[in-house]
Known about the structure:
Four Helix Bundle (Hemerythrin (Met), subunit A); mainly alpha; 5 helices; 80% helix; single chain
Amino acid sequence: xxxxxxxxxxxxxxxxxxxxxxxxxxxxxxxxxxxxxxxxxxxxxxxxxxxxxxxxxxxxxxxxxxxxxxxxxxxxxxxxxxxxxxxxxxxxxxxxxxxxxxxxxxxxxxxxxxxxxxxxxxxxxxxxxxxxxxxxxxxxxxxxxxxxxxxx
Length: 152
């Protein structure tokens, strides 16, 4: 490939490798920043909102049961919320652990990000999307996709 660049005077081999190195480094920095931001947002906004909603649902289930009625569907929602929140916490911790990786070779580090960090980010996003779908509008601390797409 470098021969085509050299033949037409676009880039010599050294310049082509330098551009490659810069692109790899930029990729590494971008993925690292985005992953760290996901961890921060999950810990600061998403998990606290989920915990708060869990508490409210638990109080509702307890109140309904103490009044002598059943709260079957509310309990089912609570169970699903607890499951999703626990999974979100596991995925946040997993992503945080993956970000501790260091490698002196930028290309190997980029491959690590591609193979380990990006899938962990995707997994965290999936559970975050599920939590967003069941959390009450007024308690969700971030703009929803609907709000971002259809600005009021």
